[in-house]
Amino acid sequence: ASRPSRRRRVGPHVCFSGFGSGCCPGWMLSPGSGQCTLPLCSFGCGSGLCIAPNLCSCPDGEQGITCPEPPGTCGEYGCDISCNHGGCQEVARVCPLGFSMVETANGVRCTDIDECLSAACEGLCVNTEGGFVCECGPGMQLSTDRHSCQDTDECLATPCQHRCKNSIGSYRCSCRPGYHLHGNRHSCV
After folding, report:
1. Where are the beta strands (DSSP E) in 42-175?
2. Mean pLDDT by 10 residues, the chain (189 residues)
3. Cα separation of 73 and 46, whole Å?
4. How many helices and strands, by DSSP H and E, does the chain display?
């Protein structure tokens, strides 16, 4: 008689580690068989079915990372479920401030909004990830409101040997009587 094999069959999608075995990422135990055959779709499949890790089969016959849901309580991007005092609640999926949600072939993703298209910078607007910064030209500095530009008083840094006259965005040197301005426009001779 043949000896029964000591290794029992554990089914597909099982990963072995130092801690024993468990379902591979993207799979979970199916309640009936106790085998790792239930795929997980982290974005949810809405009205469709999860057929493989992060692959949904949708009622319209399409396949993707998630299925479009009829707009409901969660808005147009579907729901994420979060824990709330021991219970579950559905939360609308949203993007961080400064990003907008864009639908792509494999689901939705957040893309940076170019605030410079609508920002009111007096000088130059520089788009950054999740926001923007205003910059001012030479001889000007950003006001405390971070949007408008104000003149820098270059004369405070005493660039001229004798006299300094500040102007918007610039300055001019002059000399006391008996001297004339050097070719470098700063020294007096």
Report:
1. 49-52, 55-57, 63-64, 79-84, 87-92, 99-104, 107-112, 124-128, 131-135, 140-142, 149-151, 163-167, 170-174
2. 48 72 83 83 84 89 80 55 64 74 73 86 89 89 89 90 92 94 94
3. 13
4. 0, 17
